[in-house]
TrEMBL record:
Highest taxon of the lineage: Bacteria
Protein name: Diguanylate cyclase
Gene: pleD
Positions contributing to a divalent metal cation binding: 50, 145, 149
Family classification: Belongs to the DinB family.
Length: 180
């Protein structure tokens, strides 16, 4: 299996898992989603905002089109990045819509990338330092980061008595129906 094949599978998994998680979290009221539960980003809503923010920052770097992946408010004005913990969208419907759009962008991007590009380097700024790292490493980090924080959300849901179901990558492969 190539890096491209693996990242395409992980992009499908990311989309599949986010769809499941957002459907479950969408059943909670706003106060429950935003309650400080002692997590790193405090709440379920805070953690989901962080994931969207991080994915957009990485996609801007990967594509070289940071403008496309800049979050915007309801009027279309760019939301200036201030911190990894900032709330991009207070409204869950807005957050959910933007998550779905970003997931579609991730899937589209991994379907146009090739092995040669993945074997190249990515140069980006991180906390004021310019770094150059292998692109395959940065993309792998992005998918790992998504899984890490979704795991935090599923833990919070479990602590609330809500069963998030099986979240393993293999579960997606079992559930997927072969294309006709």
């Amino acid at each position: 299996m190539s890096w491209v094949d693996q990242y395409r599978a992980l992009a499908r998994y990311n989309l599949w898992m986010n769809d499941k998680l957002y459907a479950l979290v969408g059943k909670l009221d706003d106060a429950e989603r935003k309650r400080d539960r002692g997590a790193f980003f405090r709440s379920i809503h805070g953690t989901l905002n962080h994931l969207l923010l991080a994915d957009r920052r990485w996609m801007g770097r990967f594509t070289g089109d940071e403008e496309r992946f800049t979050s915007r408010d309801a009027s279309g004005k760019a939301i200036e990045f201030t911190a990894l913990s900032q709330e991009l969208y207070a409204d869950f419907d807005d957050l959910s819509r933007e998550r779905a759009r970003t997931d579609a962008d991730i899937v589209a991007w991994v379907h146009q990338i090739d092995e040669q590009a993945l074997s190249g380097d990515l140069t980006f700024a991180l906390r004021g330092t310019v770094l150059t790292k292998p692109l395959w490493w940065a993309v792998g980090h992005c998918f790992n980061h998504q899984t890490h924080h979704r795991g935090q959300v599923t833990t919070l849901l479990t602590q609330m008595g809500i069963d998030p179901g099986v979240t393993d990558l293999f579960a997606m492969l079992v559930e997927e129906k072969p294309a006709p």
